[in-house]
């Protein structure tokens, strides 16, 4: 966790430091990333970085959690997560990523680095707790869907969550590859094709696990 000194910074300066670190980790990897480069690009003194974080690892782990929280808040502003249907949850999550491709390609690429295992054990350490929270939330969505009669009740909840996670993982991978092909600058036609694919994916999910 960051120090009180970091938390006392205004939000703009905090974000500048984190975005500088995320860019350095994405471009150089964890081992080769340099605190002095992060400080320089964030326009702060190198010594200040060690007043904000005890070491590079602590900074990395906080960057990972901050990025995930940024995504979740962004999705929540579009479709509030409370009591959301699991199919709407899938749609809002992927549509949120489509919008983030336009606005936040760096954060999206860093997230892809994390989920692909680029950072080895650090990926596991930074993601385990958040994945667990995500699984618990999806289990709750499945349980709610069964009670509402929108999800079939003849399949174990955990298997249904695995099914949704597998579909989500693949569509996210597809989105990232399509965006990467055009340098994260997709035109309206490309977005329309992705939207069509997304709607078909949701239809398949409903046919597989819906009632």
C-alpha Rg (nearest Å): 19 Å
Q: Which regions contain 5 or more consecutive residues with pLDDT less than 50? A: none
The whole-number mean of residue pLDDT values reads 84
The class by helix and strand makeup works out as mainly alpha
Q: What is the first-to-last residue Cα distance? A: 44 Å
CATH fold call of the largest domain: Tetracycline Repressor, domain 2
Note the main attributes of this structure.
single chain; about 210 residues; mainly alpha; Arc Repressor Mutant, subunit A; Tetracycline Repressor, domain 2; 2 domains; about 80% helix; about 0% strand
Textual characterization of the structure:
This protein folds into two domains: 1-54, Arc Repressor Mutant, subunit A; 64-209, Tetracycline Repressor, domain 2 (Orthogonal Bundle), CATH 1.10.357. It is 80% helix and 0% strand. The chain has helices at residues 4-7, 11-32, 35-42, 46-52, 56-78, 86-103, 105-115, 121-148, 157-181, 188-209. Helix 2 packs across helix 5. The longest helix is centred in the middle third of the chain and has 28 residues, at 121-148.
